[in-house]
Amino acid sequence: MPAPQKHVELETCNRVGWLRFARPPVNAVNWEMLDEIGAGFETLFNDPEVKVVVIGSTLEKYFSAGADISGFKESGSGEMPRWIEQTHGLAKMLRAADKPLIAAIGGVAVGGGLEMSMHADLRFAASDARLGQPEINIAFIPPVAGTQALVRLVGRSNAFKILYGGDLIDAETALAMGLVDFVTPPAQLFEDVQAYAEMLSAKPANALAAIRRCLVDGGAETFDAGLAIEKQQAEALGRHPNFDEGITAFLERREPNWK
Question: Is 135 a catalytic residue?
Answer without folding.
Answer: yes
